[in-house]
Request: fold
Amino acid sequence: MSEVVKFHFLVDGEDFTSAGQASVQMKKSLRQLGISPEIIRKLSIAMYEGEINMVIHAGGGEADVLIYEDHIELNLVDRGPGIANIELAMQEGFSTAPDNIRSLGFGAGMGLPNMKRYSDSIQINSKVGEGTQILMTFHL
Amino acid sequence: MMTVREMAERLSMTPISVGDTDRTFDGVYIGDLLSWVMGRAQSGNIWITIMSNINIVAVATLTDVACIVLAEGVTLDENVRTTAEQKGVSIYTTEMTAYEIAAALATVEQ
Reply:
């Protein structure tokens, strides 16, 4: 039986300019594993949005990617402030990002909607004051 | 299909970072909000923007656009340029506005 391939990344919450390192690295690894370009694109964009969110809101976090025979799981965990209203946060255009982040081209309120758009399923567990966990699944 | 290099030569664009310029492109996406670009730009597009911070390199890599075209004479800091070269992301600059670039591309693409 085939084994599960695992990747683990720490997302540095201090450095906004290095955000994306984990997802760019993941893209490279997925390509080496022979995953289809369309799946790679979806997963790496969703992961980048997660990284950016962790840097903007949570002071960093962790990302795990588990590759199974028929699907990939992307699990993002942070100990940030949590999401008060997940339904609102899922709406395109809703954002709590500060102005300095917006001037960089982020904070358009598309992060979570893009994660939903590009994954086949998404599950968000968040508790205010404790953190957020986002589990996304991608069918192979 | 036209390559990125042929397109840049036709429109007299200045190369800033040279990646795979033999790659052909298909369609154009214009936008400065990076998450919006990630949600809408298609693989193989030419991405026109005025954003010049380091994050455009990651966005171009992840969306798999054919190249970035910086409009209205926007240029890059040296560290952004070297990062783009390392990642193999082709970037050009031109004095044209986003509209003028898109209009010119519409004629050369046919």
User: Anything to note?
Assistant: Chain B has a mean pLDDT of 95. Chain B has one domain: 4-108. Residues 4-108 of chain B form a domain with the Udp-n-acetylmuramoylalanyl-d-glutamate--2,6- Diaminopimelate Ligase; Chain: A, domain 1 fold (CATH 3.40.1390.20). Chain B has five helices and five strands.
